[in-house]
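[Q] Does anyone have a clean structure-token version of this?
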Amino acid sequence: MKAARAAWLLTYLMLLAVPAQGELAVPVDKEVTLKANDLSVDVPTQSYRAQGEVRITQDGLSLLADSVVYRRLTGEAQAQGGVFMERSGDTMKGDSLSLNLLSQTGELLNGELFVKRSNFRLRAERLEKTGPDDYKMTKGTFTTCDGDKPSWRFEARQVKVTLEDFATAKDAVFYAGDVPIFYTPYLIFPANIERQSGLLLPRLGYSSKKGFYYDQPYYWAINPSQEATFTLDLESSRGVGGGLDYRYLRPHGSSGRLQTFGIYDTQKSEFRGEVDQQHLELLTPRLTLASNIHLITDRRYFLDYGEFSGEYNRQYLESTASFDQRWERSGLFGELRYTDDLETPNNDATLQRLPILGFIAAGEKVGPTFFSMDSRFTSFQREAGATGQRLQLHPRLAWYGKPAGLLDLSLYGGYQQRMYNAQGESSERGWRQLGQADAGGSLSLPLERVYDGRLRHLMIPAVEYSFVQQRRDGDLPFFDYDDRVLGQNAVRWSLSNVVTRKFAEADGIPEYRDLLYLKLSQGYWLSGQRRDLLTLVDEGHRLTDLMLEGVLTPVQRLSVAFDTRYNTSDSQFSTANVGVELKGEGRDKAKLGYRHSRGEVDYVEGGFTFPVTKDITADLLGRYSADSGELLESRYAVEYRRQCWSVVFSYSDRVGSRNVAGEQQFSVNFTLAGLGSLGPLRAF
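[A] Here you go.
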């Protein structure tokens, strides 16, 4: 048997020693296959010579050339003419290649490396392959643009690339077309579109508060569940600062984020900064822990460093830590809440809730009724002023029925007991308690009609009654509005409409979308007191404002929301709030909002993102106060986008007020495809 095998092998090798005519494919090794038009082998040295449309394949790697010499013992291949090597979509091409298939190392002359997933292209006279996924270039260029004349490129003395990881460059010059723009002695950037560590592109600009500024971020892909961005912030008028944005995921859906920023403010001669932390821990499917800690160094921090409306003019800053335990029909929760009132000289008199503990039960059936309980304990703390504890117990029984099989009827009755233990600077110190009964019910008649099997109209006329016992509570401590529960005896009517349309989908599964929600309602106070915290205008008439609220969605990308109150006693509008949103293709969108509260607010806000040309997109935002006749804030941005790069020019102008300093700011933000970009600093 051994002799027969040896004879067969000798005959096979003798055949290989004779040049073959026509295409021939030979398995030269367990992992290497050689294919060519003309193929010969030198038996003593086990060297293969291939000519014409040569192809070598090995474990997903393909090498094409006009001619190849392959030495089986050493794994070395010498390829000449039209060299092209491909693996998983990544390619190398050039004039000649020396490659060791065993060590995956070699050298390519007059070559180009192309990384498919990031469109990364590297060209050099001499390109070394130093490992399976590692490359080194001496005196060459790299870009993510297509074509022989890219829109931008880096020329560098040396570049090292690790696929699926990152690349580094030494003595790199950035070119826009053929114009050199800037030089950097060292550059690190991702060599793939996946999460990769490296420097991101900087943002630079000018602000009337910061002066000239330069923001340089560095992104660190720690592992698949953690990432961080470090930012160096240079401001000519404020000093040098730094930021951190750390994000992480934990098992079972838990997650968190830590954002910090700090700067030594040369104008104030002090350190200023903030810490913003969020965490959600899902210990079990029904037990969660959460925290949201937001702290700043001084009370005017947001006035100087706030970027957007709602941040630079915020009044309160809250930090919380809480837990939530849920069962089938009940739940237990607790929270520590610390509030910082930024509009007061100090925080000594600001009321803190440390802690809040509560238990809620709902849906427990007791005979023909359902029992619910809302109970909570709050401890109020502060440095100056009255402090104390409050216990609220609010049990309630409810009954649901359907008279005549058409009407929906619900009735409820309950009793709220409040108990206090007050201390400090207050005449209501010591033990206090008060109980109030409450009851009510609602009666509605759902009416439904379907048109042509596709359009459904649901109309629900309803009437509601509510009663709260009037009790004298002026001698109770006053911590918040829960301590002054107003007695009432009121009735309210409403008419709700919902129009839903059925749309046929290509896969046969229908889609249902509400085209219109519209509710008209009004109330009448038979007796008791009024306090409406949902509106800035309330004249206190027994007949309340006629309220119209709704959402109109005539087409999928367009929605109109409105909330209007009309005072029928005085024949004038109390409030009018309207919001319109239109979403286009991609980032195109338009939003317009109007808020009016008689004698209080008259305010318009709009934002638009739309294409000007194929390559240019405009982004506009404005906030206008009609009652003061001032444009409160305006932002203008223009983005010019090409195949492999884009640049955004933006300008913003914010009008100052008594508590908020105005600011004008201009910035430039570059994006190079595959190398990333930087948005607003700290991503807060």
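[Q] Thanks! Anything notable?
[A] Confidence is low (pLDDT under 50) at residues 1-23, 676-684.
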